[in-house]
Amino acid sequence: MLLLCGFLFFQLYKGSQSKxxxxxxxxxxxxxxxxxxxxxxxxxxxxxxxxxxxxxxAFLEDPNKLFEASDHIQLLLVVKSHLLNFGKREAIxxxxxxxxxxxxxxxxxxxxxxxxxxxxxxESKLNKDIIILNVEDTYKxxxxxxIYSLICLSTLNIKAEFVHLxxxxxxxxxxxxxxxxxxxxxxxxxxxxxxxxxxxxxxxRETSNNYISWEEYPFVYFPPYIIGGTLxxxxxxxxVLAVAVQYVRIIQIEDVFxxxxxxxxxxxxxxxxxxxPYKKPVNQLGNIxxxxxxxxxxxxxxxxxxxxxxx
Length: 311
Hints:
By secondary structure, the chain is of the alpha/beta class. It has helices at residues 2-18, 32-42, 86-93, 117-127, 142-155, 174-184, 235-244, 254-264, 297-309, and strands at 73-80, 104-112, 130-136, 160-167, 171-172, 191-197, 225-234, 268-271, 290-291. Its EC number is 2.4.1.-.
């Protein structure tokens, strides 16, 4: 009797576990081991993708031209930016996006808005640092900025040691980021570094920007993931991610989706507390890697000057 009760309890436990995390269920991906073996061996897979990603129609301007004159890059900064955030982009160009201590290249990824695209085309022509996606620039489409950024980078002949995917509301200490990358991520690693969350629950309130229904995500918890505002990796991992995002069902929460992809494709995610999830006073930012909360361009210009004059 005890053995029977124990067996039934174990089966119930297994059933409940399958509903906790998508990692215990193939609802989001199928045949991953075979696809992963293909990717590792050939850099691609002949399996039919889950997501219909039309890469030839994804860009309003050819992104190749941004990298034509690029030599070996130590740190490539890929900044997700809203089309209307002209001031933020200009502040980044004058601060952490244009440092002299490293061979850094900064590119901004934006979508389009009706009647506004001509303005960003002018900005792109002037600065030669903007990837314009054929995707409407809305909150729900941020996930596609990451997807197409990864695919774009994987198709270009970019010689970059490390890649930092980052939001335009952050202050980034690029030298610190590069130093940590050299210590933590080798060129042969398939790994990502950032601030990790574990066992977080989906937002089920429909008024939330991050609302996700039970139909879209029928599990209690998200798998571990790195917050999407700041993620550090290398080009080898970018190549794997660029293929992997095509084989995992998309959800609209960008950082969670990348976490699901990493879980499915066994990409190593590593926590680093230097990628702050919240804003700190400027006098505490000397040793950090990146800090959020810079929605106003002036505050970035001000704090950057304070940091550099206090050194």
